Every structure is written in structure tokens, then in C-alpha cells.
Predict the structure of Cell division protein FtsI (Penicillin-binding protein 3).
Amino acid sequence: MSPGRPAQARARSAGSARRTYAAGTRRATARRGNGGNRSRFTGVRILLIVVMVLAGLKLVQVQWFEAGALSEAAERQRTSVIESPAQRGSILDRNGTKIAFSVEVRTLAVSLNWLHKTMDDFAAKNPTKGKNFESEVAGAAKLIAAKLPGVITEQELLDKFHKPDGFTYLVHDIEPSVAEAIVKEYPWISVEKRSKREYPGDSVGANIVGYANWRTDDKDVSKHNLHGGYGLEASRDNDLAGTPGRKIVNTRNGNDNLVIPGTERDIQNAVPGSDLQLTIDTDLQYELQRQLSDYVAKSKAKGGQAVILDSKTGEVYALANDKTVNLNDPASRSETENLNNRAVTTPFEPGSVNKIVTAAGAIDAGITTPEASLPVPGSLQVADKIVKDAWHHGTQQFTTTGIFAKSSNVGTLLLAQKLGEDRYADLLKKFGLGQRTGLGLPGESPGVVPPRNQWSATTFGNLPIGQGLSMTVVQMAGMYQAIANDGLRVEPRVVKAKINPDGTLVPEPAPKTVQVISPQAAKTVREMMRAVTQKGRGQQSGTGPKAALEGYQISGKTGTGQQVDPQTKTYSNHLYNITFAGILPADNPRFVVGIRLDAPDATLQQGLSAAPLFHSVAAYLAQRFQIPLSDGPSPQVPLVLS
């Protein structure tokens, strides 16, 4: 302590020194703290600058280097390239009457995921509006049901709106104006343009024409095209369908493919399909279907088929099956068994109508003449088999005409043996048996003819009488067309021409022809077979007098072919194919008619023959086409001499 200073002064001096030290300490500490803050601020500023530079670089990259790719990606997310369906060609009959054509319709659809989200968002933002998913779909269901009475109910629509799926079709085949009115009230409903196939005749020609429908994969509208599902609609689909166009459309979101109306931009225009003109006459087709169906019911047959050919050209004027469908009714046409065109797909053993082969061969080869007589026993041994006639008789003198008019199995085999197996086999081929006719319909069967090198000792005891081989009703009629056309067989056909979109007519390729026998031999056989419809005393009647038509000479042949019993796998004594093939008129042929009944009830009068049905069909043909009367009735000729 300094001497002379008071103690109080010394105390103040010491306190001042302590304050001065403390202040210096605080200033030093403050200086150190400010330096730390400045360091942190500098770091943050540097970090922000780096972030901003990186963001800027990214922005430059996006705007300059990736702009095109990102734009394209965004465009892809909201647009789709879809097919624009081509107008499907019509199917016409020989007179230009439309059998099938397309009309423009609309299909309504909705993206349920999109609708749920949109309505939920709206309800959340506007809770007082009272508008939500439930109220919206209820209103839409009520409006659509009211616009389409009898098509869909309000409850059916509500069920569709509440499906767990993200997408649903609401209703198909709506008139464009009705669809427009609905979408005007509820723009969230999507509209697809489609075509609907119309069949004015319902079931007329259904087994020939078949049907066209939509192949759809619920969400993929690029697959929504009208394509053939059966018959000519399927087999000639390439001609009828045309070439679809392509267009870009905006869709409601990236994955539901629901097109926003008014956003379509064509890339490639669709090319319409071609029309097909058939050889079919729709009035005659209707009548043949009606008469066949009625007769099958009367005879209690399992089924039946019939065909009418032009005797000169082989064109099919009508081709009928007793079972068919209503092409305008999806439920009906789903019964594909009834769409089966058995007239071309289902061969059968024809029985005695096949005797025309022996008759033609024997006359053409000069083995016999219509008036020549031949002793015919009641039975004949062929290898280990005994062949009998349908009625009991001893040896009798038959004329050649009588052998075929009375359908003698024994007499036919005696003539076939004179003709010989090789010539007979060649005739089967020339008549078109065992091969497809080239008719132009899908699923055609060639039938069955045993190869010549596989014939057994008994084969030639079966074939001439129509057993051991099979044919379709079209093939059967084709044999008689050759006889009607002076021995020239013309392949039958059902399509006459294609009509391109520009109106040009493209005829089908000319049918193949085969000269089966000479023109004179064919004329002789044709005249000889008139006796089948002859009605005489005692044994002088043919087997088909009920086929006769007043004012016209009729040439033809009845047939009764045994069917194989499905239980015993042997020929049945009660199941038969009943057939008739006839020429109208015999003296100036215009039409050939072939008929087959599948296992009719043999105990009924109608079950014994198809001749009455031929008579009815021939009467319609004569009236419908104003066929001139024959010069006179068929002459009565002797069939059995003793």
C-alpha cells in the first residue's frame, strides 16, 4: 500500500482497477463472439450461393437441354394415339338387298378413380354445395336411365358406378344424339365412337353371314374395332373391315385412356371396307329356312339342311339349316352350336341319292340304256356280305330306268360291277366327292371317300348304294347340278363379287369346272330319272311321286341312308338320313334342290321321304321366278317288266 494515501482512496482505486479489468475482459470476449458470428454468416451465405448456383444450373439444364424431352414426356402422359375404326363394308344379296350393314353409335364410359378424386376434392373445398360423388352419380344414373328406357335401369347404372374397378363401361350402342345430350349434362362421362352391326333379316342367312362384334380390352380403345366373329363376317373380314385410321387424342389422365371430347387430331384417315355381294336371294333364303324348319318339326327329325343351286352357274340361291340364331340378339348368337352351318360342315352317308353315280357311269360308258331290261334278284352276295332290296321280291326283269326309279340296291350293284371299280372311283372324284367344293364358306368338310387303294372286298358293295362314304348336302346337290348342266359340274359359290369403296365391282374368280360325263349322257340320265316321281299302277310307281309338281317335269332321286348307332357303333335299323335331290324342270333345268333330314321319326308319314318338302320348295321356286311350264308331262315308262 502507498504511504500517505487514505484507506478509502486506496479502496476506490482498487475498485476502479477491477472494473477496468472486467470491462476489458468483456470487450475482448465480445470481440471474440462477433468474430464467430461473422464466420457462421459467411458460411451460410456461401451455402446459399452454392444452392442458388446449382438451382440455376438445373434450371438452365431443364430449360435448354432437357426441355424437348420433358415436353414430349408430358405430352405422352396426356395424349394417346388410337385407331380410328374404318366403316365396315355391307353384305348384300344378289339383288342388292342389305343382309348386314353398320350404323354409327356411341359407348359411354367413366374413369371411377378420376371421378372419385375430383368429387372428393370439390366436396372438401365446397362443403356447403352438397355436391359429392354419390349425388353426382345418382343424378347421372337417373338421367341415363330416363334417356334409355328398356335398355338399362337406374339401379344397374348405380351398380356400375360403385364397382371396385378404376374404369367401367356404362352402356353401349347409343344413338349419337342421345349420347351428346347425356354428356352435355355430365361432361365427366367419356364417349367412344363405334359402329353397330345390323342384320335386317334377324335369322335370314345367319348361318352363312355369321356376325361381327367388338374385340375390346376394357381400357384399350386402340383395340375397339368391329371384326368378324363367325361365318362370312369372319372368313372375309379382311375385305369387309377396311383399314383403320390413326389419331392423337387427349386423355383425361395418363392411364385411363378416356378421350376428352373435341381433342381428336387425325394422323391417317381410315379406309372403308368393301361390300360383298352374295349369290343368295334373301326372299328365297327366308322361305327355304321356314319350310325346312317346319318339315323337320313335322317329321320329328333331329335336324335338317337344304340348298338351292342355279343349275347352270352353280350359284347358291339359298342354303338353310333348321337350327339358326337371331343375329341381332347377342344372347341368341352366343349359341354357336346353332350357328354351325351343317349344310357345309357336317357330312353324312347319303343312301340312294348316290346311285346317280352308277346311273351316269353306266349310261355314259354305253353299258346300258334306259329301256334295257336286266334280271334283278332279291339279294346279291358281295364278298361276305348279302345286299338286299328294301322290299322282298324274287328275280324280276327291271328296266334300267326302273332300277333307279324304284331304287333297287341289287340292280344298282349289278350295273356298278359292269362299270368296274376303277371307273367308278374316277367318277366319284369327277363328281367332287371327298373334296371341298370351293363354296367360299368357312369350316367346309370334304366328306369322306375311301382311297381306292384301301378298298376292301365289301367296299364296292357299299359305295354304289350310298353307304361307306359321306358328303355334305351341298356336295350332294352338286352331283345333280352336273346332270342338270349337260354333264358339266361347276363349283358352287356363295359370294358373287366384291364392291370396292370407290364403287368398282370385282367379280370372284371364275369357278372351276369338270366335265363329268358327256352332254348326251347327262340328258339321258336326266330324262331317265323323271321316273322317280312317276305314279303308276302296281310296281310302276317310283319312290318319289310326292315330289311331282303339276305342269313341270321333275327329275330327281330319293335316298335312305343308315346311320351308325352311337351305342352299338353299327348301322342302325331305326336311324336314317332321309335325302332328296331334284332338278326343276327336267326338260329345261333352272334349279337344283338338295335336302337332308337327320333321323326323322320313321313311324310318321312325313318321316318316310323328303319328297313332299321338295314339292313345296319347287312350287315356290316356280312361282317366285315365273319358270315356264314344261312342254308336257313326263311320259309314263315301264319300270318292272315281270
